[in-house]
Amino acid sequence: MNYENKKKQKQLDYERLFSVKKPKKQPAYNRKEFKKTLKEVTWNYQI
Predict the structure, then answer these.
(1) How many domains, the chain?
(2) Positive or negative CA dihedral for 29, 20, 38, 15?
(3) How far apart are the first and last CA of the chain?
C-alpha cells in the first residue's frame, strides 16, 4: 500500500468512527472531540 492509499484508508476509518457516534450535520474534522480522538486513533496508524 502506498502512502496515498494509506492516507485515504485512514480518512475512511476516521469517517466510519465518527459517523457512528454523531449524526452527519457538519464535518467531524471541525469538532474538538474529533481532534482529541484523532490523537488516540493516530497511534494505531503510524506510517
Answers:
(1) 1
(2) negative
(3) 11
Q: SS3 sequence, 13-39?
A: HHHHHHHHHCCCCCCHHHCHHHHHHHH
Q: What is the pLDDT along the chain (47 residues), one digit of tens a residue?
A: 577 888 888 888 877 777 665 555 555 555 666 666 666 666 655 54
pTM of the complete model beyond 0.85: no
Within 13 Å of residue 9, how many CA atoms lie on the same side as its CB?
11
Q: How is residue 12 written as a grid cell?
A: 475512511
Query: Is 37 in a helix, a strand, or coil?
Result: helix
Domain that holds residue 38: 3-45
